Amino acid sequence: MANIVIQLGDITELPVDAIVNAANNSLLGGGGVDGAIHRAAGPGLLAECQGLGGCETGAAKLSQAYDLPCRYVIHTVGPVWHGGEKNEAALLRSCYQHSLALADELGLASIAFPAISCGVYGYPHTLACTEAVTALKAYFANNNSSLQEVYLVVMDPNLADLYQQLLRESV
Ligand code: AR6
Predict the structure, then answer these.
(1) Which atom of ligand 1 is closest in space to residue 22's alpha carbon?
(2) Which residues constitute the domain of residue 28?
(3) Per-residue pLDDT at 171
(4) What are the pLDDT digits (tens) for 92-111?
(5) What is the CA 150 to chain-centroid distance, rounded?
(6) Domains in the chain: how many in total?
(7) Is 34 a catalytic residue?
C-alpha cells in the first residue's frame, strides 16, 4: 500500500515521477489545472497532445513533462457532474484506476493527483473525494504496485480537510 499524502499547493511544482492532469476529451488544454500544467510545461506538451487523439472520459493517456519538474504527465478526463445519473461515480473512479495503472506500467514510485472534476466539471466535493479515496484503496488492495507515494494535491484547504477526514475514516 502506497503512502497517501495530502498536499496543499500547486501540482505543477511537484518533482514527482508523474502528475495527473484533469483534462478534457480533446487533450488540447483548457482552464483550471489543465491550463496551469500546459503553461508550466511549455509548448512541447501541446504539440505532443495533438498527436494523442484525445481521451475518453474515465481513461488516461501518457505524455512527457517538458519544462515541468516531474518526469511524466498522465492526462485523464473526469466526468462532468450531471446530478449522479450519468455513471459519474464509476467514471471518476476509473480516472484514478487508469492513471495508477499507467504509472505502474512504467514502474513509477510517485504520482500526484489534482481533485479531478472538482472545478469546472462541478462534481460535489464530498462525493468526488469519497470516490477518489475509494478508488485508491481498491487499487492498492488489488494490485502489486511500484508506487510508494500518492499525493492528493489541493489548492483549497477545505478539500485538504475533507481528504484528511475521509482517509481517517477509511483506515
Ligand atoms: N494545482 C493543484 N490543483 C489545482 C491547480 C493547480 N495548479 N489549479 C486548479 N486546481 P479543474 P475539472 C484545482 O477545473 O473540474 C479544464 O478547463 C481546482 O481548484 O481544473 O476536472 C479542462 O480542460 C479544482 O479543485 O478540473 C476541462 O475542460 C481541481 O484542481 C475541465 O477544466 C480541478 O479543477 C476539467 O474540469
Answers:
(1) 21
(2) 3-169
(3) 73
(4) 999 999 999 999 999 999 99
(5) 10
(6) 1
(7) yes
